[in-house]
Structure formats: structure tokens, C-alpha cells
Sequence to fold (307 residues):
Amino acid sequence: MAFLYKAEPVRGEAWRRIFADRRPGLPFHIWPEPHDPAAIRYLAAWIPPEDLTVYPNLEVLFCVAAGVDQLDLSRVPLDLPVVRMIEPELISGMAEYVCWAVLSLQREMQRYLQDQRDRRWEARPMRAAADTRVGVMGLGNLGRAVLARLAPFGYPLSGWSRSRQEIPGVTCHAGAGELPAFLANCDVLVCLLPLTDATRGILDARLFAQLPMGAALVNVGRGGHLVAPDLLAALDAGRLSAAILDVTDPEPPAPDDPLWSHPRVWLTPHIASATGHRGGAEAVLANLDRHDRALPLTGLVDRTRGY
Ligand code: GLV
Fold:
């Protein structure tokens, strides 16, 4: 029985030390170290090896990230449990990033940064947090944590998700039928959806047209959620005022992609949040314990939903 890790190697070394301490009887291999495929019971990966049939005794596939869209689930046997990452550092990183992004948009920090570069000293009227409605699409662990961290600033908060959720202090909307009502009240729209066939390209001209004039976008989901030419057109038309994008499709954008240089687009290189070394290992170890005891795994992917 052995564990195979196939992702960022520095984190792999950290996991190896933690596993040696906590599961000393479980051999831990970092891909592509030599290993006996038949011994591998657990695989943790960002992108798994192409052919999973070489691991006939695999019992659980752990994704090292919160999103599992980069796994080609069609190649993963249906009876193999797939688990996405839920751990505190990943969650707080996302909450910090989105708070920064929403504050920056509310306080127009990108414009003030440009003003400094242009040697312009000009105060603009401040929009109060209470007058800046923030809506979060995707109300899983990350979306909920983001809303909880935004609440003390005083933003009126709303959320939208596929299935109905209830979050104190947040106006929650569910399903396609309630999307227009949600969008109509978002001065800042934050996308934290999982990327599935149902959400690919959801951030398009049709959606932007339902936001209040001059709304701003924060995309921390996946690049595939966004139809980038529609965003650029909406920014140029003044329909949207600004966008902060931590994800693009592809990553990085091509050298001549207009996203790089648009004055109202702020790009960051998929750094909003990352799985912590210790927290990630602890989350997997806790799930190994649950697996041993035949308890439901935390973060189990529903293969019919795709997340
Ligand atoms: C990163 O993008 C993740 O899905 O954890």
C-alpha cells in the first residue's frame, strides 16, 4: 500500500515529511520517483497521469486544488472517489484576495495608481461601502468564507448558486431563474463558481448587460468562465468600469492579448490562493482516516455535477 503525489514538488517534499511522521507505514512517492503501480492506493495530483488503469488498486484520487476542472473526469473511472481540496490556508488566501479586490474597486485604487504614474494629484468622491453592493457567484466553502470576511466592511452582500443556500446577512439567490435579480444588484460581481459545462462562458455580454451600469468584475474562478472579448467590449462601452482577473484562459494570456494592457483590467497570475503545505497534508490525512473508517470523505466530488 503506497501514496503517490504528482504535483508541485516543493509541497510534495513537505507532505513527505508530514506523512512520514503521521503515517510512517505508508510509503510516499513523489512522481516520477520509481514506484510499483500495483501498490498505489492513493494518488494526489493537480493533473493525474494520463492512464489511470496502470494503478489497478487505486482507492482515492485527491485533487491538490479546490477546483477539479483541470482533471479530465471522463478519464477517471466512475467508481473511483475524487476529492477536491478544502483546507484553511486555501480558504483564507481566497478571502484575503477578494477583500483586497473589492476594497480596491470600491476605493478606485487602480485609478489612483495610474494617477501617481501620471503625476496627477486628484481626489475623487468616495463611494461608501454601504453603497457598494457585492455579489458572489458560487456559495461553496470559498464563497462563504469570502462573504464572511467582506461582511464587517459593511457592503450589502448577496450570493448566487445552483442550489438554494441560506447565509445569515446575505441575500441568497438560486438557479437560472433568479440570476437576473441577483445581477441587477451587483456593483461588484465576484465569480467563484466551479468550472463545469454549465458555467463555462457564463461571464459574457448577456450577463454583463444585466449588471448595473458601471459595475466591476472580480474573476477568481477559472479563465474559462469569462468570454474575454465580451469583457473588453463591456469595459470600452462603459457598461463595466473595471475588472480584476486572477485567472485567464490560457494562462498566461498570449503576449498580444489585450487583457495585458487594458487600462481597466488588473491581472494577477493565479495567485489568489493556493493549497497550504501543512493544511493540504492535514486535509488529506484526515480523509485517509475517514476512508479507513468507511466514513464519507470531505470534499468528495459529485461526478454528475462535476464539482
Ligand atoms: C486553484 O486554482 C485551485 O483550484 O485550488
About this structure: The chain has a mean pLDDT of 97. The longest strand covers residues 40-45. The helical segments are 9-22, 88-106, 109-117, 141-150, 179-183, 205-208, 228-236, 277-292. The chain has eight helices and twelve strands.
